[in-house]
Design brief:
transcription regulation; two-stranded antiparallel ribbon; globular; nucleus; 2 domains; 3 helices; NAC domain-containing protein; Metal Binding Protein, Guanine Nucleotide Exchange Factor, Chain A; 17% helix; alpha+beta; 6-stranded antiparallel β-sheet
């Protein structure tokens, strides 16, 4: 466990937490106890282009995890992260505990940038959905923290590059998997798969 800096995972170890685990066990702990040791490092998003994350963020496969402070301006030296207008609720025990935003990295200056294959999921704590029971899951052993102490100063980011491949029809596509063969762009496929996820979340009791 380290408070800052890069972390190399040992051979055979795969860091693959769920959205719920990222919010409750990592992000809320960071928000309530910012000096508590954490395997996920702090990075300034404006100082790094996505291809520079390897070796600085906590990397597992092609996914790079890091904490950063909430910013309206997500510009870097060579481009900017653009929200695509999709937010997913993160639910734990039928309660909304956070939200996940999707962003795509664009080269150049806004709004004339060129879209790349780099995607980022940005996790936010939903304080309105926290009660004392839920908040206790991310509190330290010293005792429970009040809901407003799990604030929104920090966000947890997961960035990754969609793999480019060539379909049988000669059309470029992007995928998280090694194989492809569809004429849809990775963003089209993302929106289609998102519909099923949202239906499942919306079906949960309020």
């Amino acid at each position: 466990m380290m408070a800052c800096g890069s972390v190399n995972l040992p051979p055979g170890f795969c860091f693959s937490p769920t959205d719920e685990e990222l919010v409750l066990h990592f992000l809320c702990s960071k928000a309530s106890l910012p000096c508590h040791p954490n395997i996920i490092p702090e990075l300034d998003l404006s100082l790094l282009d996505p291809w520079e994350l390897n070796g600085k963020a906590l990397s597992s496969g092609n996914q790079h995890y890091f904490f950063t402070k909430v910013k309206e301006n997500r510009s870097t030296e060579n481009g900017y992260w653009k929200e695509i207008g999709v937010m997913e609720p993160i639910v734990s025990s039928s309660e909304k505990v956070g939200i996940k935003k999707y962003l795509v990295f664009n080269l150049g200056e806004a709004p004339q940038g060129t879209e790349t294959s780099w995607v980022m999921q940005e996790y936010h704590i939903c304080s309105s959905g926290f009660n004392t029971t839920t908040a206790s899951n991310c509190a330290s052993t010293r005792g429970r923290r009040k809901t407003d102490q799990c604030g929104s100063k920090w966000v947890l980011c997961k960035a990754y590059e969609k793999k480019s491949c060539q379909s049988q029809q000669g059309v470029n596509c992007y995928s998280d998997e090694d194989d492809c063969g569809t004429e849809l762009s990775w963003l089209d496929e993302f929106y289609m798969s998102l519909d099923d996820d949202l239906e499942e979340v919306m079906s949960l009791p309020s």
